Request: fold
Amino acid sequence: MQGAGMLLYFADEAAPALALARELGLPAHEVQRHLFPDGEARLKLPAACAARTVVFRSLNQPNHKLIDLLLCARTARTLGAQHLTLVAPYLAYMRQDIAFSPGEAISQRP
Reply:
């Protein structure tokens, strides 16, 4: 699928992702996600990705979603995506921009 573009989304965010795909005029494809008993995920993307691919993934409850996102992005690139755009309606880890006490991790740099 090397056309004008495509949008990838996860089932838990289907409604807003599909609305965005319609607005952009892009075909939308669900990233299939299987969760193993130990919490690991197996993802399955379409057999091919467009050169310009949009990934829709809100990052509320971010810890497991970040792993999904990393796996999805890497796989999309191996399937033909050359330009990836993330649409994240909620962007996690943006509140800690300074350390208030020694040893605190800074998650967002200006």
